[in-house]
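Notes from the 1:1 (GR / supervisor)

We went over the backlog. Supervisor wanted to see one worked example end to end before approving the batch request, so GR pasted a single chain during the call. The sequence is below; no edits were made to it. Supervisor asked that the structure be written out right there so they could see what the output format looks like.
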Amino acid sequence: MKILVTATAPDADAEVDPRFGRAKHFAIYDTEEKSFSFVDNAQNLNAPSGAGVQAAANVARAGAEVVITGNCGPKAFHTLTAAKIKIAIGATGTVREAIKKFEGDELDIATEANVEGHW
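Structure output shown during the call:
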């Protein structure tokens, strides 16, 4: 399984970026290989609109089955759930810590967006 975590830097020990669509980076953890890869999200960082939807589309193309982030707006939430991607919101700490929390069932799967768009 691939787990995507929003990150402030391309490093497993970077802090979780609290914003999904405008996160600086995406950390992708492959649970089978026990390895990380990183994707720069600069194209959406300063987008005037549509950052969440575009980021969600990129997540789906990357093959992620789960997204771990601090917050997720309604359009990104809808796009992710339409692609059958689970979303864990409210994550804090480092990317590595967030993955451990998820694997330990300490993060809940969201049933709705937790912020308005464009925040």
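Supervisor's comment: The two ends are 30 Å apart (CA to CA).
Batch request approved.
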